[in-house]
UniProtKB/TrEMBL annotation:
GO terms for molecular function: magnesium ion transmembrane transporter activity. SUPFAM superfamilies: CBS-domain pair, MgtE N-terminal domain-like, PRC-barrel domain. The lineage of its organism: Bacteria, Bacillati, Actinomycetota, Actinomycetes, Micrococcales. The keyword Lyase does not apply. It comes from Demequina activiva. Residues 287-354, 356-413 form the CBS domain. This is Magnesium transporter. It comes from the Bacteria. InterPro entries: CBS_dom, CBS_dom_sf, Mg_transptr_MgtE_intracell_dom, MgtE_N_sf, MgtE_transporter, PRC_barrel-like_sf, SH3_actinomycetes. GO terms for cellular component: membrane. Gene3D superfamilies: CBS-domain (3.10.580.10), MgtE N-terminal domain-like (1.25.60.10).
Amino acid sequence: MSQPAERVYVARLAGTTVFDPIGDAVGRVRDVVILMRRGAAPVAVGLVVEVPGRRRVFLPLTRVTSIVPGQVICTGVLNLRRFKARASETLAIAELFERSVTIKSGREKAFIEDIAIEPMRGGTWAVTRLYVRKAERRKAVLGFSRRGEAVVVELDQVTGLMRRDEVQGAQLVIQSFADNKPADLAAALMEMSPERSAEIAAALDDERLADVLEELPEDDQMRLLGTLHSDRAADVLEAMDPDDAADLLGDLPESQAEALLGLMEPEDAQQVRQLLAYEDDTAGGLMTTEPVIVGPETTVAACLALVRKQELPPALASMVFVVRPPLETPTGRYLGLVHIQRLLREAPHEAIGSYTDPAIEALEAQDSLQEVSRRMAAYDILALPVVDDDRRLLGAISIDDVLDHLLPNDWREHMDDADAAEAAS
């Protein structure tokens, strides 16, 4: 393999385009996979490459023929199986950047900001140098500051590289996904080791972690929730949509679920308990208790302001449900729903009550998943109301909830396979 003589710094690799032998771009470098070895220098074994569909795959460095500024050239076709770090592997950017080490001379604490790798004989790449920033000790309560001198040190001049800080670099990873959707961060967590994904989860705020959990498969949801202290787990469950929280708690042992419900705020716990009372494959088990609910006298302008909220899922933002007071579920008598398209056609000052769609029949809580999906397809609609025997609105079912239950449990992996096939073509 033809290799460059100069060392390569990992931070400069991030975002670099990867080309196949004929010059076609196949993806971009997102991280470098390091094999940490006690008693020996760490070695870089591969690159994490993001291919079309935001799928991240593994490219062995033995398949890399050239690394030069602005491009990485590889041999052959990429293996498009989703990358997931093994227990012995460490992601340089996600796990080593910002890790604290000690510079032997002077016993100075420093934080890793970059890592240099160099090609060695036999096609391997060794970690040889670290770019670190010394920590300045402040007399104030700030403790260590990371605004000290930046230096390049040889690997054998530091200690502590093998030691994992509990939250080292977590904020760096979180910040890199600040502008991404929760599903993107969820996919990244699935690639990391269980220990690292738990560290990232611990550093996320409750709202963001709740959004990420909603995008994970059930097994990963339960695993991450199990790494949190009970009080924190209850806070995150409160931040989740009630139907998603109910689905997650329904997969836990009854005693554990009941203990978490007891730690939640009574109002939030009551909504989740209401959903847990229904079978999973019924309208009651599928619905959320937090659709957009208004009284008949509410103006069109006020309704448009409600559906404009960023945190509202698109399916639930497509309509408002009109009821008699009270407006909290279970509400007063359900009057009907109004589509957002109708709202856009009416005068802002008009009351919403006279614009309900009489053609949409509400579901009952006991209706089956098959009936829900049939009705949703027949009406060509994104969400449907669920009422009780007294015509009180209990909640609403959105199309994404239906699809989650119709698709197999491992549908995300099937989706990855489809993305891989598309990328390969």
